[in-house]
Each structure stands twice: as C-alpha cells, then as structure tokens.
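Hi L.,

You mentioned the student needs an example of a multi-chain input paired with its predicted structure. This one should do, with 1184 residues in total across all chains.
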Amino acid sequence: MLFRKSERSANQHQSAVAPAAPSGIGIDRRSFLNRSGLTVGALAVLGDLPLGGVRNAQAGPPPAVGAAVATRKNICTHCSVGCSVIAKVANGVWIGQEPDYDSPINRGSHCCKGAAVRDDAMNDRRLRYPVKLVDGQWTRVTWEKAIDEISDKLLEIRQKSGPDSVYWLGSAKFTNEAAYLYRKLAAFWGTNNSDHQARICHSTTVTGVANTWGYGAMTNSYNDIRNAKTIVIMGGNPAEAHPVSLQHILEGKELNRANMIVIDPRMTRTAAHATEYVRVRPGTHIPTIYGMLWHILQNGWEDKEFLRQRVYGIDEVREQVAKWNPQEVERVTGLPEAQVKHVAEIFAKQKPSTLIWAMGQTQYSFGTANVRASCLLLLATGNVGGPGGGANIFRGHTNVQGATDLGLDVTTLPLYYGLAEDAWQHWCRVWEVDYDWIASRFATKALMESPGITSTRWFDATLLPKDQVSQPNDVQAMFVMGHGVNTITRMPEAKRGIEKLELLVVCDPYPTAWSVLSERKNGIYLLPACTSFEMDGSRTASNRSLQWGEKIVDPVFESKNDYDTMYMLARKLGFADRMFKNIKVENGSVSAEDILREINRGGWSTGYCGQSPERLKAHMRNQAKFDVVTLRAPKDDPEVGGEYYGLPWPCWGTPEFKHPGTAILYNTHLPVKEGGGTFRARFGIERVVKRKVMENGQLVEKEEHDNLLADGSYSVGSEIKDGYPEFTLAVLKRLGWDKDLTPQEMDIIQQVNPANPDTVSWSTDLSGGIQRVAIEHGCSPCGNGKARMIAWNLPDPVPVHREPVFTPRTDLVADYPAYPDGRQFRMPNIGFTVQKTAVDRGIVKQYPLILTSGRIVEYEGGGEETRSNKWLAELVQNMYVEINPEDAGARGIKDGGWVWVSGPESNSRTRMKALVTERVGKGVAWMPYSFAGYYEGADLRAKYPRGNDPIVLGESVNTLTTYGYDPATGMQEPKATLCQIRAA
Amino acid sequence: MARMKFLCDAERCIDCNACVTACKNENEVPWGINRRRVVTINDGKPGERSVSMACMHCTDAPCASVCPVSCIYPTDDGIVLHDKDICIGCGYCFYACPFGAPQYPKVGNFGSRGKMDKCTYCAGGGGNEAPGSAAEYAKYGSDRFGEGKLPLCAEMCSTKSLLAGDGDVIAQIYKERVLRRGYGSGAWGWLTAYHEDIEV
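Structure written out for the whole complex:
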C-alpha cells in the first residue's frame, strides 16, 4: 500500500491519504500481490475497506433511459504527446471515455492519467466557487466581488509601485488562445513579468536549440521515431513521463531492430526496455557527449559533407572536444572508454539516429549548454533534417509548446518576435492598437524592451533588497493561473515570498499548494478555473501539431474558462475594449476561434499563420486519414489532402495558401510547399571573426568573413541552388520576384512600413505575400542558412562542462566551475559564489548524497489535479525517496521506513518513506516531484479550503532543492543537488 | 466458438497503469477494489519486466470448480462471470485463483467479506439483471461486450501490450509480433534448448 515501486512493504500507516478518501482506504497493487502470494488469508482482515462495498453508479454509464449520448473530442492535458480523448456526454454529464483509434498520435491509447481524465473534470474535490482568505478562514465570495477587489488592489499596486510589481504567472495547460491572451493581458497591463512552466522545463531547450538551427522545438515527431535505426534517450524517462510515446518507440525498435540506448542516472522504466543502459552521474551530460564526439571525430565517423554544406563552426568544436580524451571523460563521468566508444559508434554509423531528451538535460544551471552539446552530436553525425533522426525533445504538458510559442515568456512577445521596438510595432499593427498607448502602459521604454523576471526567481524579486531588482519596485502581487508553487526550487524561500506579497491570486481548478504553504492569514484569493476539458481551443503537441479540442461539458460548479476570466479582469482593469477589439465577446463569453484568427494574422515568424480554426477542425474530423508514420493524409482527400496532421508549424502563408504544415523541420528532401525546409538563416549572412594567422613569419590578426549561409545545399525544387538570406521585399526585388506579388499584397506591405517598404520581411508582412512568393519559387521564407555550432551570443559559445552548483565532486570544481556571477533577467545570479562557498565550507561532508528528481507515471506537474483524482491517487499514496541498498544499509534505513531528508540550504528537511532500490546508483537519491501538502514534516491538510484537499499529500522535493540558475534562461537546477538521509 | 482471452506482451508493458485506471473509469470500481493491476518483477534491476494482471478467464476456471454455491460460470464466449446474488463471499475462489483476481469489499466488522468482485471482461454481470441496465451496471460495471466492444483496459493500453479478444486471433497477433522482433519473451526457448545465446 505504500509505493508503486516497492516490491515489498508492510506498513499500513496511511497518514498521507485523505481521511475522507472517496470510499475508504485501499491497498496498493504490489503489496496486495505480495500478501496474496506469501500470506494467503491475510487479505480478509486487511485494510480498512468501506462498508457497503457495492459501488454507486453516480456518474458512470449507462445513461438514464432516453438520454441522448453525445461524443466530444478533446486533448489529454497530462503530457505533450497530444492524445485525443473521446468523451461520452449525457444530460451535460461526462459519463465515460472511449478510445480514439482514429488519432494518428495515440491510436486509442492512454496512460493511467489519460484513462482517468474524466475524474479531473467531474471531481468533487475541485474548487467550487471563489474564496478569499480572511483571518485564516476561507470565505466564499462572488466572482464579481472577487474580481472587483483583486482589480482594485492591482491598480493600487500599479499606482504605488508601477506595473512591474505585478507578476502574471501563466500555464502550459492553457490552450494556445488562452496563452496568447494572457501574454496580451500582461502587455496591455504594461509588464514583461509574465511566464509559465516552460521556464522550469524546456526554456533551456528552446534557447539552446533555436540558437543552433533556428527554431527551438522538436525537429521530428513521436511518430517519426518509427523510422529510427538508433534511438538514444538521454535525460528522459518517457515510459513514465510520455507513456504513449513508447508505442512509437517500441514499435520502431521492433520493426527496425533498432538500437535503443538509455543514458540516465536511474535505471528507469524506459531503460528496462532498452537494448543498452548506461548509468551516468547527474550533471555530466556535456562530458558524455564530448566523450562520444571525441571518438567520432578521432575515427572520422562524422558526416563530412553535411558539416561542409549545412553546419558552421566544427573547427572550434574540435578544439573543445580534443580536451575530452577517454581518461578525462572517465575521470569526470566514470564511464569507461569502451562503453563510450561503443555508443558513439552506434550513434554515428547506424543511422538515422535520433536523440531524445526531456528535463534530464534541461534542468541545470548549464542546461542551455547541455542541449547545445546534444545538437552538436546530431549535427556532427548528420542526423538532422530527415526521417528517423533529429532532436526529439519531449515536452511536458499538453500545450507547453504552444504556450512557449505564443510568448508566455519573459523574453518575447508571441511567436519569438522578441521585445525590441519593431516587435512591439508588429504586434500593435496586429492588435490594431496605438504603439504609443502600449508604450504608455509601461514604466519606461527600457523596461518595455527588457526581459522580465523569470518564474524561478519570483520570490527573490519579492524578498531581495529593492536595489538588487532592476525595476522600479519589487514584486508585490502574484496573479497565478494554472501553475504550481511546488515545482519551483527553493520552496522555503517561496514560502517567505508568499508571506511578503501584498496579494496572491490563484486561478486553478484546484486550490494548489499556493493556498497552504505560507502562514498568511489574509490576502489570498482562489478563483475556480475550469479544466481544459471544459473549453474550446487549440493545443500544440510536442511535435508542433495543433489539435482543436472541443468543450466536453460546461464548466462545472461556478468555475470559468480562462478566456472569460481574463475578459472580466481586463474589463475591470480598463482595457478590455482595446484588448478584445477583434475578438468577439458575447455575454461575457469569449470566442476562442477569433483569438486563433488573430494569432494567424500575426504569427508569420513561426508559421502559426496557416492554422485557421476551420482547418484544425477539419483535421479533427478526418483524423483517421493521416498516416501513422508520416502523419500525412492522402493527396486526393477533398478536405485535408496532402496535409500533415495538425498542420505542424511552420504552416506558412495564409490559411487559403493551404500549406500542409511541416512534419520534419529542416528537411531538404521535400519542397517547402510540401513541408520541406532548410536551416533558418537567423544569424546573419556572414560572421566577421578576428583570427591570428601567420603571415611572412609573423603572427598577425586578420579579419575574416565566415559564410553563414548554406553551401550547395537547398530543398528540393528550390530555384536558388545555394544558401540565401531571409526574405524581405528588397530580396524579392533583387531576384525580380516582387512582380509575383498581387496588388493587394503589395498594398499591405506598403502599409506595414510606408517609409521603407523594402525592409518588410517574411515575418512582418501581414499579407503573407512574401512567404507565398518565396515558397512558389521553392524557397524557404526564413532563408537557407547553416546551423551554428558556435552560438556567440550565449554564455559559452561552444558548450563547456561545468559542475552543478552543489556537486559531490568538489575535486572537479577548480577545473569546471559554475558560470561567473552576473546579472540576468533583472536579478543577480551568484551561482559561482554559492558553489565556492559550498566547497569552502565542506558542505559535501554533511550532505554526501546527490539528490535528483523526476516524474512518476501516475502524477504530473505539481500534482494537485492528479493527486485529487481518485483513480490515480489510489495507486501511489505516499511520497518517497529512492535510495541505493548500500547507502540505505550504511544508514540503517529499511525499505518502507520513514526517513528525514535534509538539504544544504535554509536548514531544509523533509519527512517521507524510503524506497530501497538498485534503480538508483550508490550515492544518488531520487524523488518524484509531484507532491505537496506536507512541509518539513507538518501536515498542511487542514489549511486547504474544506473539501478541496487533494486525496494524497506529501513532502515536496523542492523544499530541499537549491540555488542554481542558467544565465541564458534563468532555468533552475533541481536535477542535481545534495542531501543527507537518516532514518526517522 | 470464440473464446475471449487477455494476453499481455511483457516486451511492451511499461507499467503505465492505463489498464488499471481505464478499468476503474469504465466500471466505477470503488477505492480499494482492484480488478486489474500491473505486476513488476526485478523492479529497478536489469531484466525488469511488467505484466498487467486481472481475471484471465480460464478455460477450466479453478474458481468455478471450488465455488460452493456455483455462482461462477463461463459464458458461451469463454468469459468467466459470476452472480453476486448467489455469492456468499466465502473467499474459496480467491484461494483457488492462481492470479489473485477475486476481490472482496469489507462489509462489516471482524473482517467479514462482501460479495466477490472481479474483472467481468467489461461484459456486464452474471446475474439476472438485464444486460446493459442500470441495475447491472451498479452491481458489476459496464457491458461493453454487449455493444460489441472489448474491455477498455486493453483498448486503451498505451503500447498495445495488453491484447484482448478471441484467443486464436490475439495468439496470432502475438506470434507475428514475436517473429518480427525475434527476441525477448515469446521468443523463449533458445537458451533453454541450446544453452547458447543466439543473436537473431
């Protein structure tokens, strides 16, 4: 009854389970089986099973006689695979789920979360009506009163401290439309302090990958892994985090007899199905990759033609890799030469090879460098831009890809336009608002154009002295929609941060740990959001496919959908008319379709321009027609002929242009019009480098111009048989192709920039004409450049190994120190000092174990929703820490026993159960991160609004996690810190 | 005559528990009763394998043989059902079952057991209730089979590991899979027969 991973456990204590669990308290499957096998007969007296065990058929099938049963389709919210959910609805009640065999993505399948989503929506533990905390009591208020009071307070803070003192934290479970609307809301409010979960999951991927070849997303798709001959999963456990992806991975492995290599600190459920498992120390990704590259470059296994034509900067990489000879790799990672060479040879020779990763690479203070190293390996072996290869980056929520794309991010406006003036000008044109008015909303133009505070540091922005926060004032109000507090590191600080805020608003289907963590007695509002299943809108899966989900049931209780909540708020804050100028609102109900149309009108840079609501709905109607490997529909289909499922971005041009979407990025084997592409020429035409060269026996510095455009490589059908820059009107004119623009298109281009229309580009042309003409000539609108192995705008242009801030290998810190202290995102980042202090003080003697964290299949994210789901909660009823038998033995810790785990900052400590297992290596402890509701041994259940407490509570791993922030993105470092464990 | 069976492909099962929650969802099975569960051996060690277990709908079901009130019986399709109106909750079937399938709610003090509950292959109940009726649903769960559908656990399996259907058909599917992949469970026998590692 204790652990899902435990083979043998006996403790019947159930303190972490709600006393009012739906119908009594149960027994977990493993301990049950154990008992039934060993102590037959014990079952009858086991457990506190409920009286009257025959179940009630409250919400289940069959429907009442005569009730019509409707079928509706939406998308599971629990990871980024994008599984379609079919709901049966009778009398407005969701009565059952059916498998959607038509979806090419999940083909009817689900994991335990997807198979249980009905209880996410129909759950009686959901927040039913708005409440506010008054003298420690949750008090019911009406929506109108709540919004009035909240808005008054926000405006007061704005008046007193400026717009940047309000933080708008959004969600990866938003639809695309809600993510876009929330970003727009923050812009109209006048701040860039607007972020979401991508910060803590894949911000480093987006930055690292986009800075390598143009776009920061999965290059291929889950389905395309079926084409791979070698699958390397490095820093991910998809069997638990993305279970349905394993359908494609395992079938691909079987069909191709593919190699499936898992490189991970834990022997995960994924590793159990691998052909080879390699155990590494957390935080040694770059040495492992460079160790592989050392053998590849040493033996000439690299793809020389690919490097020549499509990649810039291999020489500098060679210099860096040369340092990582097998001895050094073994010293740092512990991996023997033979194993590294073997894996390298397979990856380089048995192609196509794909590299799959998730948060095992990204969640480090050097996460951007980690993912860049992965890109280097793929580029060196020529594994990008074709079927079966690529960087298959598995993201974590339904729409974390879409929310990232739509700019719910401190560094950019929607669709990666950035924050510079021309980006604001572009969006002001799309929004049809006056640029000067938007600018007037911000404290200063400088703040308008500078990145905001990352979500990982919101509490630092509250707690640090004001002079350390580069904005007029500190953060005084948090407006949180659909984001947990327990997924962010350093929770003791977050607790103090909540206490110092003037206002905390949490808009979520569940109260979440935000509501209970602090000692606050006043000033928290909880607004009941509906789940994603109760609203229309599109969601972008990891493979960049957009899927339209339809509302399954009306929002239950008093809950509201995100659009309507934002509209209510905007109205009160005084800018609803401007913000919803082109978005239909009827009786307070906002049209999701209209929001998507607005996104289409402005989404040129990323190819979000072609996916109109009508086209997406047609795809949902015609799911069965798309091929499970290529994701393409037959060309002769009247509705979706030749298109890729979900019109994966970039889907160029206007919806009428009928671009089919791009299933595989940078694929030169197809014409752009058919979904082909080239590396984006994002980094200029050439790079000027000063190099020291020998001339007449003397070392002189010379300026050299390195070409950054592709060299003799182009997509099929391209009229330009070489590299080319991004398209602008000027480029079209030079090619003589401007004559192909229609008068209407030319007219719109003129309007975009009347003073200098030549500079209007493929990404700012609101007519789509420049894109259309480029594509008609076989060219990619974003140019045909080289991928960059050197990203000169990042902290380490070529990735360099750095030890985690809290590392057990203090002997390596001198050689591989953390990034120097600096300031980023309006905040100081003193990782170097923290690391040095920890080493000087000998922290590792007190905290000798590495602590790392990850997902379990039953729970997701902060876990409030899944731990409230009665079918999931039954499966894992206690928070636990995995510890190796040797470490456990040395500490007298027994499997299933209680332990105290302490961390090196804030005197943090947590109490949980021990799971003694060889899954983790000696010296490593692992925890699932989706628990909350206990804090430093104390049960916080009584602090939830009555009846809204999740069934299962537990300590959060992030109570223990520590300092460490990636300078490029502000990513936190929960994947490697230190801890000590002792028996409780 | 078709004979309904489950088959779990251990090369594919990843212990994601979709089958468990799909069963709960479809049949509104209460907390504490687990008609289906996933069992893992060598947990966390090389050779880790998982397999999803429920009533296997045995051809010659030992539970039926030992039932003192004869409430358990196979249907024409080979599905083993029982009649809760007749069941006395004695627990004999639990001792007889090699798979630990029968479950019992606690209905009173001193550990007294309620009516036995187990996987019905999503085929409703073995009692007198009308197929597909609310009364049948309340007592046994859904009757997908009557609508021509297979058990939801197998239909929703994340990796198509858990197969349900006519024994001959799913055996054929599994055989083709094993031949195609050429390794692992189902392709057993080489080591036993020849004591050597044959690379296919």
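You could point out the following to them. The CA atoms of residues 266 and 920 of chain A lie 5 Å apart. DSSP finds 33 helices and 34 strands in chain A.

Best wishes,
N.
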